[in-house]
Amino acid sequence: MEKLGEINMRILVFVKTFANPTLTFIYSEILEMSKKHEVLVITNERRNDELFPFQNVKEVPFSTENIFSKIKLKLQYNNVPWSFKNSNFEKSISEMVENFKPDIIHTHFGFESWYFLYNFKNRLQIPIFISFHGFDASHKLNSWLYRQSVRKFFKRNDINPIFVSNFMKKHVADKLGLKTIKGKILYYGTDTEFFKPDTDRNIKNEEIIFLQISSFTEKKGHEYTIKAFHKYLQLGSKTGIKAKMILAGDGSLRQSAIDLVEQLKIADKVSFPGIVTKFGARELMMEANIFVHHSITSLTVGDMEGIPNAIMEAMAMELPILSTFHSGIPELVENNLNGYLVKERDIEDYSNKMDLISNWSKLPINREKVEMLFEKNTHQKSLENFYLEALNI
Question: Could you tell me the residue range of the domain that residue 316 belongs to?
Answer without folding.
Answer: 208-373
